[in-house]
Design a protein that fits this description.
The chain is α/β, with parallel strands linked by helices and 437 residues long. It contains 13 helices and 19 strands. The protein has helices spanning 16-31, 55-71, 82-86, 88-92, 109-115, 165-169, 177-189, 213-221, 241-249, 266-271, 278-291, 310-322, 350-374, and strands at 7-12, 35-36, 45-50, 76-81, 97-101, 123-125, 147-151, 153-154, 173-174, 194-198, 228-231, 256-258, 296-303, 327-332, 379-388, 393-398, 403-407, 416-425, 428-436. Bound molecules: iron/sulfur cluster. Iron/sulfur cluster binds next to helix 6.
Length: 437
């Protein structure tokens, strides 16, 4: 039996929801008396939470498994997460892996490990994804205790052409509405200052009593709390007028949206099976900017989806250039098994995909610099998450998502400060301190 006096380490790959899930599992081990050590230190058990969103994510997982085996040659190595759910047999072939846990089993790992007698055989604990229930998870950032992630929703009912996530995480399911306030109160009492509201398709939030994501935002807005809230990412077709108005009026929801675009061509959006067109996207961005002129808007874009011609790409580039988007996360299309796109004709050549990605990353930098400069003189609130004792410089994210530096003789780590954005030096944004809240 693997005893609880053992040392255990963790490694996460992938999105905020994955991070929250692994944090939750780590807390469970800690409460059972396991000693948590850094990944790379010698451990008796290593758990690796994987992602499978791209080909590279799978490769990263394999690399991390090999690193774990090297740093802890005698450890029991368990692999969980989306890659584990979709390709357990592939993972089982990697030397050193002892157990693989699918989506349904990952929150049961502490119980399962307490029953495993030895690490001589490879055990696969994977089942279907048809009857998954919502498992709450909250991240714990033990270093600075400033920002926490709360998973409000999991899974996805959409069928985007390129995406394998619904196959790994199952159908959409949500946290009970009545659980939200107790969860955030716990985080507030633990000293957190910001909560990131996360989900796989967050806008699809629907509690068992029919509450929607807009109801969650209203609830949080009307709650007396020192926390501020940030929406992690929301699909454009799910950004309703009600959501925009609620955020605009709210004193505690950050004026920051991350709204996946994926392509600026209606032809490609259709092929991607996305549920909006360019005009809808444009409309959402313009409504947000009308009501919140200082808001930061980020977007995901995929380059090189099958069928994306030079003209389609040009449409994407021109659309982004014309919209008040502040930054991009650019992904190069990667073929995923069992997706619709894998069978589409007109594959884009490798060098073209990479060229387009590079073009959009350059555009993202330009837009980021433009947005940051446009905020000079603007008053913002920063949650201080780092303090550099050598240079007496505090830093953290503003409510509208600008990483901001601030000279201050005192260590104000974990505080919320009001500042005025004052200058930009070598792409770093500086602010003058106005008051400590
Ligand atoms: S909305 Fe589309 S891209 Fe996002 S998780 Fe669902 S299927 Fe994947």
């Amino acid at each position: 039996m693997l005893k609880s006096s053992k040392k255990i380490s963790f490694y996460n790959i992938g999105c905020k929801v994955n991070y929250a899930d692994l944090s939750q599992i780590r807390e469970d081990f800690a409460s059972r008396g396991y000693e948590i050590v850094e990944f790379g230190d010698n451990a008796d058990i290593v758990l690796i939470n994987t992602c499978t969103v791209t080909h590279n994510a799978d490769a990263d997982a394999r690399k991390i498994i090999r690193r774990a085996k090297k740093s802890s040659p005698n450890a029991f190595i368990g692999v969980l997460g989306c890659y584990a759910q979709l390709k357990p047999d592939e993972i089982a072939k990697i030397e050193g892996v002892n157990a693989i846990f699918g989506t349904e089993k990952k929150f049961q790992i502490p119980d399962i490990l307490s029953k495993i007698q030895s690490n001589q055989n490879i055990e696969i604990f994977c089942s279907g994804i048809d009857s998954l229930v919502f498992e709450p998870s909250v991240s714990s950032d033990t270093d600075s205790r400033t920002r926490a992630i709360v998973k409000l929703q999991d899974g996805c009912d959409y069928k985007c052409s390129y995406c394998t996530i619904p196959l790994a995480r199952g159908n959409s399911r949500s946290m009970e509405f009545s659980e939200i306030i107790p969860t955030i109160k716990k985080l507030e009492n633990a000293g957190y200052k910001e909560v990131i509201l996360s989900g796989i398709n967050l806008g699809e939030y629907r509690s068992s009593d029919g509450k929607l994501f807009s109801d969650v935002l209203k609830l949080l807005s009307n709650t007396e709390t020192n926390l501020r809230f940030r929406i992690s990412s929301i699909e454009p077709n799910l950004v309703t007028d009600d959501i925009i108005e609620t955020v605009a009026k709210s004193h505690n929801i950050c004026h920051h949206f991350h709204i996946p675009l994926q392509s600026g061509s209606n032809d490609i959006l259709k092929l991607m099976r996305r549920r909006y067109n360019v005009s809808r996207y444009r409309d959402v961005i313009s409504k947000i900017k009308d009501q919140m002129p200082h808001s930061c808007i980020g977007a995901d874009v995929i380059t090189g989806h099958p069928g994306e011609s030079d003209k389609h790409f040009e449409e994407t580039y021109n659309l982004i250039e014309s919209l008040p988007i502040s930054y991009l996360h650019v992904f190069t299309y990667s073929e995923r098994p069992n997706t619709f796109a894998i069978n589409l004709p007109d594959k884009v050549q490798f060098h073209k995909k990479n060229y387009r990605t590079a073009q959009l990353r350059k555009l993202s930098e330009i837009k980021r610099n433009y947005f940051n400069s446009s905020q000079i003189g603007h008053i913002s609130k920063i949650v201080i998450e780092k303090y550099d004792f050598k240079n007496y410089t505090a830093s953290g994210w503003s409510d509208n998502y600008i990483y901001t530096y601030l000279h201050n003789p005192n260590n104000i780590l974990g505080e919320v400060v009001t500042v005025r954005i004052s200058k930009i030096i070598e792409n770093q944004v500086f602010a003058e301190y106005l008051e400590l809240l």
